[in-house]
Task: structure prediction
Amino acid sequence: GVTMAALIRYGLIFLAFGGGFQALAAELPYSGMLFAVVCLWLANMMYALEKLRERILFFWFHVTLFTFLMGRPVIGALQGELWWDYGHENVMFALTALLLTLGFLQLGALFGSQWSLRQKEAAGWGLEEQKGFCYYFGWVSQIVFYISLVFTFMLGMEKVVYIQDHTYYEYFSDFKSQLPYVVYELSTLTKYSLCFFLACLPKKSRAFPVLALYVLSAVPELIVGERNPIVLNVIFALSYYVIRDFFRAERAQHAEGGQAEQEKPWLGVLEKSALILAVPLGLVLLGAMNYLREGQGMEGGLNPIAVIADLFYKQGVSFRWLALGYGAIPFLPHNGFTNYTFGSFIDYFCNGSIAQKFFGAVSLGSSNSLLKAQYGNNFSHHLSYILLGDEYMAGHGCGSSYLLEVFADYGYLGIVVFSLILGLFLVCAPRLAGKNAVLFSIILLCMTNLFLIPRAEATGFLQFVLTMQFWAAFVICCGGALILSHRFYKRKYTAGQAVSIR
Result:
């Protein structure tokens, strides 16, 4: 039958339609449109919470969507501000884009859930029963992770030293690492080896220190003033715990009095208690960073609620860029063929390290510059230069959004199709992850940047598949595992016994 959560969700969708019709009849349609957006967002959140273990990625995506694209208009409306003061056509585009993406994310998720229901095999079953190769693949990946993490911390500490004598904006516009390039190359193996290791289903006691160190590796960026890396790392770690709990619950459901039923929950009382304490403290700290990194006093004093509200209001500045970005689209540079949706892929092929070495291509650089602002396919740099001008050259930026990029390339149809595919992926990914270690690795690597796309590149989270560092990490870990499994793995296990990394 229909659950109470589903009834509430249907009611919210009905209210969203009501808000939309009210907006059509109103002289100022913004409040009605925003009401419809909020109702659709709440409906999607209710859908995620109905089966949180399986829909954890769908849940987190909507958290970041609210943070970056809805926080400012919602808080502005509650405070009685004129939050729509960016031009009528611009604001209507922003609200329409949000309505479309929320609606089609839900539709894609519904398709994904239907597929998931037809999957008879318990999630994680295939991984749990993999033989010797997965065992050694996990061990080699873990060793590579610990080695490369040293170089990651070296790069982080260099940034911390630099920021002592420079401002936050000077860091963004002028900082260049003085460490040998090999340090950077080795540091890039950290994320890849982490995901390879986690995809082999380590025991909780082995996964915890690895994930804890991965979260801590973003602390230097936090000290410098960058909040996104540590937030994304924390979301990644929590999502992994929930997915492993999903695997555990599925196996317990399919087992009949077996060992799977005795497996302890990944998110137990201790972890949930720590989350309850850490979330508000973390939000206050992140809110304070707005002022600490610029050497300012805090407007709201030390009132935690005011600080958290201010955090979401300031993070919600991407709504402003979503609206103004629409108006700026006709002025974006066009150098022959331009495509922003797949911009990171095109720039990697045309201007990446391989193209530079073998075809004499010009590097577009990594920081704010005229070259980055006028050439290539990077929407955030193009848009920032048009909207901010000299401020862009001083280190400021307005970011991007998957909504702007797919609209600039394909119009409203682009938003519809992209959102539909994204909703499908977000719901199917946890069950797909249980098929095999390679697929799980790819999904985990997508998760490291996926939740940032409301204010970042549409397909940037997939770019890792093109990088030499990813393939180098895969060859090192896979090659080491093949050598060890061939040398030590006993053939008797192939008759049916499983060697587990657990």
